[in-house]
Amino acid sequence: MANETDQTIDSLDPRISRAHLSGGNHNDVDGLIHFQTYEVFHQSKRGAQHKHVGIVHAPNADMALLYAKEQYARREQTANIWVAPSSCISATEYADDDIFTTAPEKLYRNPASYKVMDRIQAFKERGMKSTDEI
Amino acid sequence: MNSIEALKELLYKMADDQLIIGHRNSEWNGLGPILEEDIAFSSMAQDKMGQSEHLYNLLNQLGEADADTVAFTRNAPQFHCSHLVELPIGGYDFSLIRHFLFDFAEYMRFEAIKTSAYQPLAQVAKKFFGEIKYHTMHANTWVHQLGNGNEESNTKMQDSLNYAWNYALGMFEPGPAEDILIAENIFMGEEALKAQWLEAITPLLEKSNLTIPEKATWAPIYGGRVGKHTEHLQPLLKEMTEVYTIDPSADW
Fold first, then answer.
1. Model pTM score
2. Nearest CB to A14; choose among B34, B37, B239
3. How does A46-59 read in b/e, with b if 16+ C-beta sit within 10 Å?
4. Structure confidence by residue, pLDDT tens digits, B79-118
5. Mapping DSSP to helix (H, G, I), strand (E, B) and coil, where does residue B34 land?
């Protein structure tokens, strides 16, 4: 690969050689305006929840939808796609992630704390036997 | 020319257009303006080649050689593609304009053959209609974006449109048996297709702040459908068939 800006890349790939690409530095990219990112949400079938699958870079929502289709819906069943500017997402601070820790003595909040399976089982058995009594 | 020969002529020009523009657009693979666009454009190029394979398979059922043989062993004079699809990729402005002009024509063509009296063709049209619809959405979104971008982007798109226009009109070169295709309800014919295409793209180009060249200057570039091609096709075929030529039995 060439290092001087006035040289072009000489490649085994004829397309690369034809493109006369500069092998020089691309520091000037820093001075350009960059596309924003859009968060992509994918729905596999109608009625299902849209699930977050990743991001695309795009200048606007229309282009973001075009790219979301190719990046995230090309190889799986898809009913619908949403995109939303990443800047519209509000998020908690990782520094505050201690808010998500649950005190250990609150086990009663977990469904496992409710001993109801024996009662459900008993109800089911009674129901099966009593269908002709209703 | 009987109706089978007329049908073959239609299938060959459709398949060859798709194969060649598919190969041309695949040349952007790895060189696209941004990663997402690179993936989208390459993916659509693959779609085109896949569509051409299905049409070559229809030709195979009508007695022509198998898809690989047909795609990889013919020389330029045996191809039926339009000059538009042979042209080098140029800049991204030209490739996008070509994509727009070609894909809207293909969209209208596939819309028409969904109701073709030749059932196998109608089925292929139904199967790939969604892909082609996305291709037109992609093309129109880009053309709209750059046509309405800034002065530089608008000028580049307008220049490419002016350059591509007569080549695009060449897509509708009348075949030798239009009357048979129309009479047997196989296809509505190139003239009707061109009218629908113009009706579809005119308002879209207006919204993109781009102007169709003056009608007095229209001069369709024909010849592709009868095997007369630009100097660009044979080198493309040489590159496209390089692996096949080294080992025709190679599997990948």
1. 0.87
2. B239
3. eeeeeeeeebbbbe
4. 999 999 999 999 999 999 999 999 999 999 999 999 999 9
5. coil
Residue identified by tokens 């692996």 is B243
Provide the residue ranges of all domains of chain A, joining segments of one domain with +.
14-25+34-90+97-133
Helix (H) or strand (E) holding A82: strand A80-85
Q: Name residues whose C-beta falls within 8 Å of residue B126's C-beta, 6 or more positions apart in sequence.
A: B114
Report the CATH architecture of A14-25+34-90+97-133. Roll (3.10)
Q: A71, B34: Cβ pair inside 8 Å?
A: no
The SS3 assignment for A38 reads strand
Please tell me the total count of domains within chain B: 1
As a 3-state breakdown, chain B gives helix, strand, coil percent values, each rounded to 5, of: 70, 0, 30
What's the CATH code of the domain at B194? 1.20.1260.10
- Please judge whether A71 and B36 are an interchain contact, meaning their C-beta atoms are less than 8 angstroms apart: yes
Residue B140 is part of which domain span?
3-246
Query: Across the A/B interface, how many CB contacts are shorter than 8 Å?
Result: 41
pLDDT tens digits, residue range A28-50? 666 667 889 999 999 999 999 99
Instruction: Indicate the residue type of B60.
Output: N
Looking at this predicted complex, what is its ipTM? 0.84
